[in-house]
Amino acid sequence: MKIFKTALSGSEKSVFLNFIKSYLLIFLIPIIFFVSAFVIITGQLMERETRQTEKVLTDKAYKVQLLMDEYLERSLAISLSILKNDSMNYLLYSTDENSGNYITSGYRLSNHLNSIMISNNFVDDIVVCLNDKDININCSGMLNDEDVYENYIKREDPGLSYEDWVKESESFTGGKLKCLRNGTLYFMQTFPVTPREDISRSLTLIKFRTDILKNAIESSIDSYGMIAAIIDNTTGENILEQYWNNGLLSIDPAGLEKDNGTIVYNGYFLSYVKSRFIPVTYVFALSQDILAEHRQDIQVIAVITFIICAVLGCALIYFLTLRNYNPIRQLFSLAKGEKTGTVVSKLFDPYSEIKSILLDAADQKIAYMNLHKEQAGLDQKRNLVAALYDKKSTNEFIAYYASKVGINYENQSCCFIKLKCTDISSYFEKAEENKELAHYPIDLCETIVTQILSSHYNTTCIRYGQELIFIVMLDIKKLEMFNKNIKENLSQAQQFLRENYGIDTIIAVSDFHQGVEGLRQAFKEMNKTMEYIEITGNKVIARYNRMPTLNSNNKFSTVMLKEESMMLGYVKSGNFSKAKSYFNEIIKHYFNDNVNSTNVLKFRLYGLINNILGAMNYVSVPDAGKLIDKVNEHSDLMDCKNVVEFQARLNTLFDELEEFCRDREEEAESSFKNDIVEIVHQNYMNPDLNVSMIADMMNKNLDYVSRTFKKLTGNGLLDYIHEVRINKAKDYFKENPELTVQQVSTIVGYLSCESFIRVFKRREGVTPGRFKAILEQTSGQ
Asked: Any residues with CB less than 8 A from the CB of 408 and at least 6 apart, and which?
């Protein structure tokens, strides 16, 4: 308004300048908004790109780990089976090295090695080196030291002697990968052949087929610069250096302390996963230069999008404000007087049972068959879960994997149970004190819960990511026993994990169903129940049949809306203690997990959060701007995971706002009182000074001024005016004895001397004349 009023009395140039200034002010706010949005969105895009790259690299590292660890596990089984072989035992402990049985045992062992190689498609050759007897046997027959050196060492790595080979392998009794210069990859494992001190360790060499490993890794490497490596955890060297000269020759082992992770190293953004069997790490890396180029493309797109949105936004603002801010229209409106426009020490080994079977088995064939069966079973279980998650999976597909896993879905009823770890912070504290604890809490959960359930029911456990899914199969006759005891069984498992390992868990249980469609339904019920537990936040075990369904009680919803309206009214009025009381009643009665379904809880929760935050913008309290800033400090309300967390955070916010408003009210009352005192002391000589005049000077309502002053001081405002005037009159009588009563009454603001005398006597108990005489008499003495 001031800009255009100036334009009325100025020249055309000043009108134009005022017009430009107005539009600059109008466009400044959206420009600031667009720039802020651009910075935030671009940062989010960069962070999302980094997370996606990290996920891709980590997935590829896990894929190679699954392949290589399967080969390593099978290699360990092969080595153990060779050690248990009768021919091998004869060669190890026989003293008659020139007998026919000795030679025959050697060729039998060679045939045994050949059968192992045929049944393991990843093995190219197997060599057994009995170092104390100078006997070397491979799949082709018995060899001497020279044959081993010529065929397996010199031919593939001329710089490595036979003695160096054996010496290098002696300390790795648990197994080691070795890649020679020609790219041949070996798994080496040493073992003691006799308790005598003069006998050195013997060695098993398993030569991997190069094409299997190479093809597996190359198929995982994308064409835009991704590289792969297998790092020796002891030396930090790249075992696959002979395969690919990709620049990633070595990594400092100190940077690979965790079992898996993502780091930035030597210009590469890399993800790694450690082997569970030997000290190696599988690595996939991407050059930071390539990642930077991709980010630059994203930035260019973001800039272009920003410019387009900014131009369109400014154009829209210009169009909407053109009518109100047209200079000519503003001038005409002002001239006419019209209104213008406004502007987790020891890792639990999931294969420990298989290893114990291998060590106890007398026959290698039985051991290997069990190992192969277990590994295949793990894959089939994961495939079943993946098929159940995929809504497009056919019933035939699910039925195939269910039968492979051993689920008798046609003759038995099936129930799905899901377990998640919610708090494992105390576990790691216990792990530091007890070095025998497993590294992964989920492994402990799997072992303990499986033992408890399997002791009562036919149970299959599937580990899918960081979730444990148990499939319980029962005959119809045993359903009643299950319904009676399942909660107690699961509670025992939870209590044991919490008290002994510091692991908190939540468990969701579905109903029992039969058939393929029943598997789908039970799996769906399990996931819905888990979602229900997570949104309510006050359950540790929940069953689908105990979970509430959709509540359609209109009267119930209407009552909630009335109480919510009362709460929002108290929020707007600044009475946050009352608002807190209504809020807790709403949570208690209308967010009860025994009444509402999961979807109802979610909709009501987010709606309530939105309404409360919206009401905060209309709070009518002093210094409301600072109050809004305080609300913005709690902007994480929308991130609450469940009702319990939301209730705790909002109660904290209400308490802080109540204290804030109380402090501001006290400051305002003190300022109000001081303003009145100052006005009275400055204007007490004015005969017209009264409550009405003070209210006008403060631009406040007369009743409000009078009522508030009496509330703060306990005295009426008019009495206070008389008090100030009488006190001033007494001062004049003391300091100026020559003044008469009439003169003093006029000075302190009384038009009538009689009124002054009457008020003075009422307050002091004597007339002003008598008071003056007493003063004169006192001063004369």
From this structure: 473
User: CA nearest 503: which of 554, 443, 453, 454?
Assistant: 443
**What CA–CA distance (Å, rounded) separates 534 from 539?**
8
Q: What is the pLDDT of residues 49-99, one digit of tens each?
A: 777 777 877 887 788 778 778 888 888 888 888 878 877 877 777 766 666
Q: What is the DSSP letter of 462?
A: E
Q: How far is CA 214 from CA 65, 242, 243, 270, 714, in A?
A: 14, 11, 8, 19, 92
- DSSP string for 151-190: IIIITT-TT--HHHHHHHHTT-TT-EEEE-TTS-EEEEEE
Q: In what order do the strands lie in the sheet with 260-265?
A: 226-232, 280-287, 268-274, 260-265
Q: Any idea what the Cα angle at residue 517 is, between residues 513 and 521, rounded to 5°?
A: 60
Residue 430: which H helix or E strand, with range?
A: helix 425-433
- Smallest CA-to-CA distance from 612 within 633, 639, 631, 589 is with 631
Distance from C-alpha of 254 to C-alpha of 265, rounded to nearest angstrom = 12
- Return the minimum-mean-pLDDT range out of 61-65, 205-209, 347-351: 347-351
152-190 pLDDT per residue, tens: 666 655 555 656 555 555 555 567 777 766 667 778 777
**DSSP symbol at 241:** G
Q: How far apart are CA 216 and CA 429, in angstroms?
A: 39
pLDDT digits (tens, 9 = 90+) for 467-523: 888 988 888 778 888 888 888 888 888 888 888 888 888 888 988 888 888 888 888
Note the maximum CA span of the chain. 151
The distance from CA 110 to its chain's CA centroid, rounded to whole angstroms, is 56
Kindly state the helix (H) or strand (E) to which residue 619 belongs, with its residue range: none
Distance CA 568, CA 82 (A): 78
738 vs 314: CA distance, rounded Å: 77
Q: Is 285 helix (H, G, I), strand (E, B) or coil?
A: strand
Question: CB within 8 A of 87, min separation 6: which ones?
Answer: 105, 106, 108, 109, 112
Model confidence pLDDT, tens digit, residues 30-46: 777 777 777 787 777 77
Burial 264-287 (b: 16+ CB within 10 A, else e): ebeebbbbbbbbebbbbbbbbbbb
- Residue partners of 638: CB distance under 8 A and separation at least 6: 606, 609
Q: Is the model's pLDDT at 552 over the cut of 50?
A: no
Q: Please report the pLDDT score of residue 437 as a whole number.
A: 56
- The SS3 of residue 515 is helix
Place of tokens 């134009």: 16
Q: Which helix (H) or strand (E) holds 498?
A: helix 479-501
Tokens matching residue 330: 């503003």
* CB-based burial, 743-770: b 16+ in 10 Å, e otherwise: ebbbbbbbeebeebbebbeeeeeeebee
Do residues 616 and 632 touch, judged by C-beta distance below 8 A? Answer: no
Q: What is the DSSP letter of 338?
A: P
Q: Supply 293's token pair.
A: 């180029």
- Give the domains, in start order, of the chain with CATH numbers: 1-343 (3.30.450.20), 352-543 (3.30.70.270), 554-648 (no CATH), 684-780 (1.10.10.60)
Handedness of CA 675, 676, 679, 680 (dihedral sign): negative
Q: Which amino acid is at 34?
A: F
